[in-house]
Design brief:
The protein is of the alpha/beta class. It has six helices and seven strands. α1 links the parallel β1 and β2.
Length: 174
């Protein structure tokens, strides 16, 4: 990855040794890394740094906000890929993250290859999702602002019928 395309990751991890190791690993893969020790610090860093491209979020963050509450708060500000990184494999913890728009869940100590692959996949999924939103909005606006109508010919009567009336009839609105 060259510096022009270097992605910035916000690593949210409360354990200093784990954070240092994670930061070094991510930097070896070519990412720029900002570290937050708590959920509150993560929110502050995120709000003050629009260059953050992805958040790697631990779930247990000690005192204060946990990773899921932090993710919810951040996603209210801006859409961004979040990958949960946790040692938890319990069903209730994993299910808690499923209610949040995220782009993956990586179990700690899965290995650096799995972590890097998960991050790359999250970037691809997020980019694809954003393109889909743009396309959907573009087509919706084209349809709403179109200066044309949709019509069909009723084969029994030979009359031209407004397609919207046909759709409404078919859908049971008329």
């Amino acid at each position: 990855m060259n510096s022009k395309n270097k992605k910035t990751i916000l690593l949210v991890e409360d354990e200093p040794v784990t954070a240092k190791s994670g930061k070094n690993t991510l930097q070896k893969f070519g990412y720029s890394v900002i570290h937050a020790h708590s959920g509150e610090e993560a929110i502050e860093l995120f709000n003050n740094n629009s260059a953050i491209d992805l958040i790697l979020m631990d779930i247990d963050l000690g005192e204060g906000l946990d990773g899921t509450a932090t993710a919810i708060t951040i996603l209210k500000k801006r859409s961004i890929p979040i990958v949960f990184l946790s040692s938890h494999i319990e069903t209730e913890i994993v299910e808690k993250t499923e209610k949040i728009t995220s782009y993956g869940y990586v179990v700690k100590n899965s290995g650096v290859t799995v972590l890097d692959a998960s991050i790359k996949m999250a970037f691809r999924l997020f980019e694809s999702n954003e393109k889909m939103k743009i396309a959907e909005n573009t087509y919706r606006n084209m349809f709403i602002n179109a200066q044309v109508g949709l019509f069909r010919t009723d084969l029994k009567t030979g009359l031209v019928v407004d397609a919207n009336d046909c759709l409404a009839q078919f859908a049971g609105y008329k």
